[in-house]
Amino acid sequence: MTGFLIFLILSFCVGLSIFLRFQVIKVNERREMGQTLENLHQNIEQCLKGCYTTTLTLALTINDSGTPDNFESISSQLLASNNSISAVQLVPDGVIKYIYPLEENKSALNLNIFKIPSIRNEAFKSLADKKMYFAGPLVLRQGGIGIVGRLPVYKKNKFWGFSAVVIKFKDLLKVSGINSIDTNKYYFQFSKINPNTKKEEFFLPVKKDIYKQEQIFKKIPDGNWKLYLSQKKQKYHYSVLFLPSILGFILALLIASLVTVLLNRPRQLQHLVNIQASKLLNSEIKFKTIFDQAPLGIALVDEETGKFLEINSKFCELLGYSEQEMKTKNYQSITHPKDLPKNELNVYELKEEKIKNYTTKKRYITKSNITIWVNLIVSSLSKTKKERRTNIAIVEDITLQKQILEDLKKSEKQFRNLFDNSPIPMWEIDLSLIKNYLTDLNLVGKKASTAESYFKENPETVLKCFALIKVIAVNDQCLQLLNIKTKNELDNNLEQVLDTETINDFIKQLVAITQNKRQFAYDTKIKNSNGESIDIHFQWNAIRGYEKTMGRMIISTEDITFRKKNEKLIVNSQRKVEALINTIDGIVWECDIKTFRFTFVSKKVEQILGFTSEEWLSNPNFWSEHIYPDDRDWALEYCTKKTNQLLNHDFEYRMVCKNGTVIWLRDMVNIVYENGVATSLHGIMIDITKSKNIEADLNNSFNLVSRQNERLLNFSYIISHNLRSHTSNIASIVTLLQTSETPEEKEQMLGLLISVSGLLNETMQHLNEVINIRTNVSLVVQRLNLNEYVENVMKVFSQQIISKKIAIFNHIPEDLIINYNPAYLESILYNLISNAIRYSHPERKIIIYLKWITEDDKNYLEISDNGIGIDLVKNGNKIFGLYKTFSSDPSSKGVGLFITKNQIEAMGGSITVSSEPNVGTTFKIDIL
């Protein structure tokens, strides 16, 4: 009872102290939670401030005309300076017009954010507040979840659009430092009130093991977000107090038990005796079990006689004897005679207590007279010399290991023979110190470009690595190559092999070591002891088993000086030939006769076509793809046909240059034979564009002169015909006037003379107008609204349109603008519409159609009527002739269509007519 009461009192004291300690831990945890959430909040705020700076900088690139300057270069610098931003945008009038980088964000281009219900509310919020607002998290058009920060941009106090940044949601979480939160203690949550549903949405998985009571949050107004930090259901509060609690209760229990122990001492001592007896029995059973079932041979040996007192089955199995047979023997009888003296010495030292145990490798002779190797461990079980001394021996069969070791020695010997007798200079070196040094520099595993840059910037590191090379061996050929007598001489003067090119190429080896390459080869130079430079093919391989450490590397340094000299001669010869080819004023080329794949193109191609020879050779279809489309089919067909016939050929065609221009080439092709078989095509392409242009100019000049001659001839016929008629009439009237006898006859002749002279004057005016059209080379061309000019001409004929109830259907677009001379346009419309009215059909209502037609990238004005029509079979070749009439109308003079045609041609266009008698007529005008 006394012990129990003491236990209760001490337990109460322990419980009280634990409770107070628990309260202190809870207060510290709340303080730690607040500090953690504050750090997350500050990190996110800092990230958003950086985004504000980015959008503001991007907005400053917009010039007064509303167009950004250097958008891509500035955007790339902004992204490089802020790793949390994945893209930047400029959004004029709410439409994403500029975005960087473009390739991975192309799907978001031209998106109107004001027309997307899911995002426009947040865009309007940013516009209403006139400050930066972060929309999202939302699903991005370019993929993934992200946050879009938009800053309204105003130009001249007028809303221009938004400057925006895109942050991937995972990048925001990374920047905030969420990854550094102890996930065993806390859970982080990110939420926002949805602007459309007005409900709170959570963007991280919701866990069920969260204490609602231990949850705190902070708001971020720039995105209307909430950051929650919740304490997970942990047991570590109690684990911290577990040990002192247990110790306190144990102490209370021990003190309480002490009273009982003192009163019950005799019974406890008896109990302990029983326990110890039981342990000894169990220990003996365990020893026997281990002894018999051990995977190694175990024996108890009398130290004096060497006889086996106890021996397990594994030992018997190893030697081939039964347990009874082994107990009749001693270790001397089964030990190999050569190993017995060493064995006896070890036993003597063990007996004299000079050593406590020993380990040795020795041979046993089995029952079947087979020698086996074993690893023997012997320890003494006796504590004093007076006792009967017994040793325990543990035996492990290592016969197979010995055999493997022997094989390795033989293999090493063979390797050494091959190494020493190799006709190629060979090195065996240790690069492990270099690899360890590079590992300490944190270069192993880095990108090759990063490592190479480091070595070039730090030449002292390269020299230090070279000093860490450890030469294990070199063969005779290597010594002869370097003109060195011994390996020691090479070890002491290893830097003498360094050449300027050698140390530069040594960087390649260091880069290969950082990439963990087992094999590496390249050409370089070294120097022999006389300072002479030698070209070598350098190659190293890691010996199996040393791939990771690079502790043993075999290097071959084949002398390629003679080969390099020959290669240099060949290269120089090729350069001379190439230089000669490149001086030829034409593209010299060579291609395969079957595939037409070019194998050589001279440098002249860059001067003629703008493409480099590398660009040509890298594309198997370059030649066919760059032939001018109109010439491609026939040129390929012609070349293929002549090649199949094994005929040299010469042809001209056009090719498209790199800048888009088209040039003429004359291609002269020859068949090349090897051993009587046609293998390839050689040729030269000569630029004949200038001669072709001269030829075209001559043809154009000839055609122009021909047309002018034809017009002059026609005009001369008109003048000779019309003027001759009038002058003949005037001459006849003058003759009659002279011979008139009465005043009445003279007055009559004078009237006729006045009438004929008036007709002559009218004819001269017509001819003068035609001449003015043809000689007016400086016509004024203006931007004219075609529909307005049609309406003006209609006003001229308004009286006739009303009186004759003419139906005019104008299908010309109201806003159609053409480049034309105003006077010519009005004259053309007047003549064609007046003809449609004048030559109307007497039995039906007049209908006139005006249309604007686009065909084959050309524009046409079409004027149609349902009049009496023209017999084109009869009059088609003279419809636009001067003074050519095709009706009985006395007002028809045959001048209007002639003048109209000349006016249209003066503007660079043409006019065609289609007509059928008693059906109608359609005029089609080509307007450039």
What does this structure look like?
The model has no long low-confidence stretch (mean pLDDT 80). By secondary structure, the chain is an alpha+beta fold. 48% of the residues lie in helices and 25% in strands. The strands form seven sheets. It has a five-stranded antiparallel β-sheet with strand order 2-1-5-4-3, sandwiched between helices. The longest helix has 58 residues, at 2-59. The protein is elongated, with a radius of gyration of 55 Å.
Shape: elongated
Whole-Å distance between the termini?
124 Å
Class of secondary structure makeup: alpha+beta
* Widest beta sheet: strand line-up: 2-1-5-4-3
Low-confidence stretches: none
Total strand segments? 31
The major beta sheet can be summarized as: 5 strands, antiparallel
Helical proportion, percent range: 40-55%
Approximate strand percentage: 15-25%
Average of per-residue pLDDT values? 80
What's the alpha carbon Rg, rounded to whole Å? 55 Å
Number of helices in the DSSP assignment: 29
Assembly type of the chains comes to single chain
Brief summary:
The chain is an alpha+beta fold and 928 residues long.
Reconstruct the topology from this structure.
Layout: H1 2-59, H2 71-81, E1 87-92, E2 98-100, H3 117-129, E3 133-139, E4 145-155, E5 158-168, H4 169-176, E6 186-193, E7 200-202, E8 210-220, E9 225-232, H5 236-263, H6 265-293, E10 297-302, E11 308-311, H7 313-319, H8 323-327, H9 331-334, H10 340-351, E12 357-365, E13 371-380, E14 390-397, H11 399-421, E15 426-430, H12 432-440, H13 448-457, H14 459-467, E16 470-474, H15 476-482, H16 487-492, H17 500-514, E17 519-527, E18 533-542, E19 553-559, H18 561-583, E20 587-592, E21 598-601, H19 604-608, H20 613-618, H21 622-626, H22 629-644, E22 649-656, E23 662-674, E24 677-687, H23 689-739, H24 743-775, E25 782-785, H25 786-796, H26 798-803, E26 807-811, E27 817-820, H27 822-838, E28 847-855, E29 858-865, H28 872-875, H29 896-906, E30 910-916, E31 920-927
Parallel strand pairs: 26-28
Antiparallel strand pairs: 1-2, 1-5, 3-4, 4-5, 6-7, 6-9, 8-9, 10-11, 10-14, 12-13, 13-14, 15-16, 15-19, 17-18, 18-19, 20-21, 20-24, 22-23, 23-24, 25-27, 28-29, 29-31, 30-31
